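Budget justification aside, the reviewers requested a transparent look at the raw inputs and outputs of the sequence design task funded under Objective 1. We therefore reproduce one unedited record. The lines immediately below are the structure tokens for a 327-residue chain.
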């Protein structure tokens, strides 16, 4: 490495510039409103107060989450294991969808989707609620229930969060596997958590080309004996390999299902999902996330870090790997 390049790297490591936000943005931020509510005057005072992590996360949980049963203890810490909101009953789907069905939020747009061919679709919270319930009921008929693991091998379609929420609705544990991973990589993750059901799609668009996903899923299932059923979302409609008795079209298996489904009341520390590492340095490791802990962390991040307001639109451009548009 030349001395000039070493100098450039040192300059990057020595970045000390501070970019202050516009004054009106800071004054109207969610953090400022929260500080005012709690009588906190300065950022230093806030940082000092938040050193008490149990106090901070109790305030966050009480403001952002709606428990079926109140928790008894904020944190049970036995390194390296942590349990949050011990004794509480919770399900993330209640906060994401269920509680909105009795308010005007039910008619608000929840997802706007623009696919690569140019189609644009919208789902309200009520639409999402209905579709999640229909898929959850279908999964229950296939014998999937609390504690069962479900693999999600899908591109970035709205059906992906529908499947995630349907799993959570019935207490099943989902694991999202990147749709660009090989059949072997998928099988490795399916086998690690004894996956009972796989949800995938037939094909999807990627930069003007069709990507066949179902054949990849089939190759993985040949190596994954615990997978008993596969639900396939028809994205393209092209012919795909099929195994009768195991494979089910999403639209067929949900067609006659009711739009209501009872949400499982779970322990706050019941698993919501397992997210596997890339496995580039060895066998992929499954990181476990529980319902209440994940929900409060996500909600607090969106409110404080991204400063989302009720009328904001959260844009996600899905242009990494073989995905299928943005939401």
């Amino acid at each position: 490495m030349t001395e000039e390049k070493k100098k450039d790297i040192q300059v990057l490591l020595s970045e000390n510039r501070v970019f202050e936000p516009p004054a009106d943005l800071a004054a109207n931020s969610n953090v400022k409103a929260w500080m005012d509510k709690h009588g906190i005057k300065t950022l230093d005072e806030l940082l000092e107060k938040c050193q008490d992590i149990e106090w901070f996360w109790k305030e966050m949980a009480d403001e952002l989450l709606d428990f079926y049963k109140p928790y008894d203890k904020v944190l049970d810490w036995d390194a390296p294991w942590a349990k949050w909101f011990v004794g509480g009953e919770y399900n993330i789907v209640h906060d994401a969808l269920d509680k909105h069905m009795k308010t005007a939020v039910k008619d608000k747009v929840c997802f706007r989707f623009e696919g690569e061919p140019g189609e644009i679709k919208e789902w309200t919270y009520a639409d999402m609620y209905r579709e999640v319930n229909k898929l959850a009921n279908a999964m229950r008929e296939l014998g999937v229930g609390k504690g069962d693991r479900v693999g999600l091998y899908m591109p970035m379609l709205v059906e992906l969060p529908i499947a995630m929420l349907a799993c959570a609705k019935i207490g099943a544990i989902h694991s999202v596997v990147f749709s660009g991973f090989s059949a072997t990589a998928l099988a490795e993750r399916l086998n690690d958590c004894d996956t009972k059901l796989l949800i995938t799609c037939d094909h999807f668009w990627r930069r003007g080309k069709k990507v066949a996903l179902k054949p990849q899923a089939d190759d993985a299932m040949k190596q994954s004996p615990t997978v008993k059923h596969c639900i396939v979302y028809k994205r393209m409609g092209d012919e795909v390999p099929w195994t009768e008795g195991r494979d089910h079209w999403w639209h067929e298996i949900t067609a006659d299902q009711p739009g209501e489904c009872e949400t499982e009341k779970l322990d706050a520390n019941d698993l919501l999902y397992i997210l596997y590492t890339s496995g580039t340095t060895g066998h992929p490791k499954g990181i476990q996330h529980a319902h209440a802990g994940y929900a409060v962390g996500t909600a607090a991040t969106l409110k404080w870090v991204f400063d989302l307001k009720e009328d904001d639109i959260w844009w996600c451009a899905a242009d990494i790997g073989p995905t299928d548009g943005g939401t």
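Residues 125-141 form the longest helix (17 residues). Residues 319-327 have pLDDT under 50 and may be disordered. Computational costs for records of this kind are itemized in the attached budget.
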